[in-house]
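FOLDING PROBLEM:
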Amino acid sequence: MPADPIFSPMLSRRQLLRASAAAGLATVLPASLAFAATPLKLAMGWVPNVEHAGVWIALEQGYYAAEGIDFSYSPGGPNAPDPLVVLESGKAQFAASDWLPFIDAYGKNSDLVILASAFPTSPAALLSLAKKPVREPKDLVGARILGQTPANKTIVEIILRNAGLPLEYTMVPTGFSPEPLLAGDGDAYFCFATNQPITLEKMGLTEGKDFFVTLQDSLGYKAPGGVLVAHKSFVKENRAAIVSYFKAYIKGWQENAKDPKVAAELAVNKFGADLGLDLDQQIRQNELQIPLTKAAGSDKLFWFDPALVDGPMAEVARLSGHENVPPAKDLIDLGPLEEALAAG
């Protein structure tokens, strides 16, 4: 860890505090040497379940505090305000969002910036059954595709167009439960690889035999799932604190990968105790999401290729009505994350 610039390069802030406490002098340090933790609040995009596994471990193990961060969060969910609204109101320093809502907000405030991706390999996927599996782009031609949002249609067309295939398919509106797929209402269902497939597993079905989960990433639509957003002005003024935040966050997720049950128990019994979460489901969700915290072929947590912003991500934004999508250099700053990764 780099030495704190306030002190001599030979003595970091943490070393000084440890030495003072050991000598019984902590209570008599002059005010100029008493450091308060930096408060950082995250507006989450979803309820406090195991999706935030690394956060729970970092809190429980004191990783944020050890980095000088006073971390807090506001839970998301269907009844919570939009995280970007919370960010813009000044009630949080970070917001968990998605690409298209971020672009919407950026059009109103260009001080926003993306700092990382929660899932560099997006959990967004297509779920299909063995009688008509969707494993590659050609399987979408002529298919009835169950989707929840207009963006689903855009993504299908990007996948087909990039594969040089005809835009021949039928979109079928549906909800967030996979039962319509089982009922034969469609051939493929837009899902999250960490969610609806677990429902099928609980029904006794087996992936790879009874059903298939094909990530959009493997179909050629490569875009990270979930982005961490802040204000550029805040990043400029608090870069060291943000690096410290990422160090704790990374450590939390590294620990999570060692035993998916730990964070699941924290979600069920503590942080999401009022949600009625099922422990087995939370453990399975955690197992499925851990590989998605890195991009394919990368060993960097939460890192994604900036070229994606100027490629497929810009394309889906334009097809969704955003005619002028700024270049990646204006939209993302992976510098603090890169510094935290290097320190680890």
User: Anything to note?
Assistant: The chain has two domains: 36-121+224-343, 124-219.
